[in-house]
Amino acid sequence: MKMNDFRLDGRVALVTGGSYGIGFGIATALAEAGAKIVFNDRNPELIEKSVAEYKKLGIDAHGYICDVTDEEAVTKLIATIEKEVGTVDILVNNAGIIKRIPMLEMSAKDFRQVVDIDLNGPFIMAKACLPGMIKKGHGKIINICSMMSELGRETVSAYAAAKGGLKMLTRNIASEYGKYNIQCNGIGPGYIETPQTAPLRERQADGSRHPFDAFIVAKTPAERWGKVEDLQGPAVFLASDASNFINGHILYVDGGILAYIGKQPD
Ligand code: NAP
Ligand code: GCO
To answer: In terms of Cα–Cα distance, which of 172, 118, 144, 155 is closest to 253?
Structure first.
């Protein structure tokens, strides 16, 4: 093994939903390892703001407006990226939403929207990027899964169904395209401090911690929420040649939550 195996020089990395949160953090790490960064989001103002944020970090990121659920727009996006930047070598399917609604109160429309973005989106993005990867003779697809790829909890039925499906889509892409030297793996973050989980960490009116905040810290052997930085090394590893014989694997970066039954009574 050579340390250079962890480098991404000359590679084009596309991070969906790369304007902020986990996507932004992963993209900055891939850039640090040498990749050229491309990202997409739905909101034009957000793209402009995020390109400036990347620039502050010395990263010349290319931002494009594109909703990952819009197959026609995604096909055009990949063709534009290939023309303006180059063939996508690394695809990080990061874009995702969550709706926390008890199942009996959740409309089928809400359920479908979560599954559309969190599961159909990664399918559409991977389908658009695979032909270029096959042509180049290599490729990396990293799907951002979740604790909810393995566990359920109240109010997240659509999200858990989508993330469970994303785990199996990861394994299926690995099975179907491994012969082209394409590796498709997942990262399963634990509970990470980002805008998506902010409602679960909000201080209560009396200044006390959110009950869910205390719950997650108690459920995590590391006794803390994860930070975006905790995901950066695993993402570079799975995007690099150092992981060329790892395929269909979900790498959980969760501080030990999945290994832990929970604090035993004193
Ligand atoms: P976030 O802060 O809400 O960021 C999500 C990003 O995805 C935003 O840039 C958002 O942009 C974009 N996005 C949403 N729908 C999109 C669409 N249809 N097309 C294109 N972009 C879209 O979430 P996060 O916490 O960084 O999470 C990122 C990923 O990690 C998600 O897949 C999430 O499920 C997963 N995850 C998060 C955690 C955690 O604890 N935070 C843990 C495990 C897994 P807009 O502003 O346009 O919506
Ligand atoms: C929730 C959280 C989680 C995290 C993440 C955990 O409401 O339970 O948002 O779903 O986002 O997916 O891995």
So the answer is: 144
CA of 95 to the centre of ligand 1 (A): 4
Q: In the 8-state DSSP scheme, what is residue 41?
A: E
Q: Rounded CA gap, 127 and 219, in Å?
A: 37
Q: Which residues of 137-166 are buried (b: 16+ CB within 10 A; e: fewer)?
A: eebbbbbbbbbbbbeeeeebbbbbbbbbbb
Query: Nearest bound ligand to CA 26?
Result: 1
Spatial contact of 211 and 150, defined as CB atoms under 8 Å apart: no
- Look at ligand 2, atom 2, and give the residue with the nearest C-alpha: 197
Under CATH, which number does the domain 3-193+226-259 receive? 3.40.50.720
- For the stretch 109-167, pLDDT in tens is 999 999 999 999 999 999 999 999 999 999 999 999 999 999 999 999 999 999 999 99
Q: Could you give the 3-state DSSP secondary structure of residue 177?
A: helix
What is the domain partition of the chain in residue ranges? 3-193+226-259
